[in-house]
Fold these 2 entries.
Entry 1:
Amino acid sequence: MLAAMPRTSAPPPPRQPVPRRDRGDACPGSLRLHTADDGALARVRIPAGVLTVSQARTLMDAARRLGDGALHLTSRGNVQLRGLAPDCGQELAGVLADAGLLPSVRHERARNIVASPLSGLESPAAADVHAWARELDSLLCACDAAAELSGRFLFAFDDGRGDVAGLGADVTLIASPDAGALLCAGGAREVLVVPPEHAARCALLAAETFLGAARDAGTGAWRVAELPGGPSAFVRAVAERLSAAGITAAARERAEPLTSGTGPEPGVVPAPDGRAALSVEAPLGLITAGQWSLLTRTALHDGAGELRLTPWRGVVLPGLGPDSARTRLAELSAAGMITAADSPWHGVGACIGRPGCAKSLADVRADAAPAPGTGRGLPVYWSGCARRCGHPHGDWVDVVATAGGYDISVRGERLRDTMNDPSEFAATVAEARTTPLPQ
Ligand code: SF4
């Protein structure tokens, strides 16, 4: 039996001590490869997760020729190529540049933008925030100063449904039907109401404000939460910056904290125009060449020629007819993708673990295999060590490898003794996922 879940909602976490950093962040990129135990790793930023069919094919072609032959989706809707030869950087950069996936060499790690994956595809979305994301990407790449942003600094554009607003971005813009766009930063309660037509420009000005504040503080901050003055002072500084730029920004307080939403459920998503979108997820975020080929063919021949990668390690294909959506969904299911919310793999994630990461204490991806019929409940994330790379936001079942087995917890509360018998992993995690949380 698991211990009872914590009895009260977790209070807001206390502010962490402000770190003093004497170096830039080590986040990998398309050009800055990270050396892992399974070869070099490249992280390709995909703003708002949007790929053309041609770009999607380029990525898989690169993975097959230069890497391990698969695409690894990240919790920010980006793509990682793994198992690369250490000397393939120049060739990879050329391939990505030719496909339009490297519009600015200097900004390649700064293009961290997530957006509501279904925005503009179904009602009642307040706005199509993908237009904001495209505009911000152009503004970032044209801004010299923005190249100094750390590879961890994140922008989020939420169309009002509350999905990406809870992903802990540094600068979040939320579309609102009656209040323009809400600019939120670093978890501060204070928000700014800004004109939606200036949403992308406001995001860039906020990023420039962060860079100035970080420089003045001299602490080498990578993210808004690390600024010594805290997020509230940062929001006030952003308001002054917007005012100086001639943009009206009204301050107000958020009634509720930004909570983590969920991604699109797997399945067919009807659109008001009679079309449909397909939503699928990749088990543990890994997509094989065969699955990617099916996705790109579907996008090209049945859909709108576009793939949207989600921060929940899924893919949305817009613009299908309802009949072809159902047919292709069945084919993607047969190919091993997650196509229904009751799939036992839905909501299950894991870091790369052994043998890809030298820090890992276990082969977490092998151990994470879920029990049949256990797909509902909290997300679960298996980590090979306490760093928990790529973990979800909000409430989730935290399974962490230790020297003696796995520790399992929710909201920081350990639920039971360390698990060390593989035969009990699946059932124990399934029980943790479905044990009700207190309101
Ligand atoms: S959580 Fe630990 S084991 Fe997993 S990828 Fe990160 S550093 Fe490696």
Entry 2:
Amino acid sequence: MANIIECKNVSFNFVSEDNVETKVLDDISLSIAEGEFVSILGHNGSGKSTLAKHLNGVYVPTQGKVYVDGMDTSDEDKILDIRKKVGMVFQNPDNQIVATIVEEDVAFGPENLGMHSDEIRRRVNGALATVGLSEYAKHASYKLSGGQKQRLAIAGILAMTPKCIVLDEPTAMLDPVGRAEVIKIITQLNKKLGITIVLITHYMNEVVGSDRLVIMDGGKIRLQGTPKEVFSNLEVIRSCGLEVPQTAELMAELGETDDLPLTVSECADRIIEMKGLDV
Ligand SMILES: Nc1ncnc2c1ncn2[C@@H]1O[C@H](COP(=O)(O)OP(=O)(O)OP(=O)(O)O)[C@@H](O)[C@H]1O
Ligand SMILES: [Mg+2]
């Protein structure tokens, strides 16, 4: 399948006011296929958000190239097209709301593109239905819960019909109910609509269903693979300052790391099988 995103040998330096350069991304090469669900993990300051901002041209590499659907993000003529292909959702739900009424917030992006009002209405209704907020269309956006606000932010992006959505810790400020709602919607967007998802999170239980995990450390990619492959490397994960899912830890204790069971039900099945239990 075609790659929606290609990072080729990307390095990025921040330059301070007194001209001191800090290398934050160091020779990152990463391809993301259309329709893939990729999660990025890494401890604080490992460069995740900086990488995310390269994926729709908010930052351009100091060295190397990022291509979005074949378009070079350093080509200023392409930046609008790139932003239409790759939408971003950030951590703080309150910072992403631009209008006081829910449906007006979703309409903001399409309106700015000068779209016909019938098309705007169609997109707004479609996006609100997809994130489960249709009944809140006329509500005040600031009154929504945190999880609903993040779903509203996602609807605003869906109204731009993106191929890919990058979410930088979208659940970090939510309660468990809001977190579950947002992860459910993201998963549906990927599985039902084929939208490519890049999810940055600190919650291990949110990544076990991903197609691929990318572990960052010190501005580099330290490890990548399927969740089963990555979480089989407990020592490497820990050396990157990350927790491992409790399921992986339990299976490691039991010496059951072949085709590592990661969900609770997979673990239960494996234990039943190991013990020859009859249930
Ligand atoms: N505007 C900036 N100017 C200078 N340095 C910065 C700037 N933004 C980030 N950094 C530095 O770049 C490094 C990577 O930051 P980044 O925000 O990408 O990390 P992160 O993995 O997203 O961390 P977190 O988990 O805390 O969100 C950090 O050392 C940070 O201090
Ligand atoms: Mg960050």
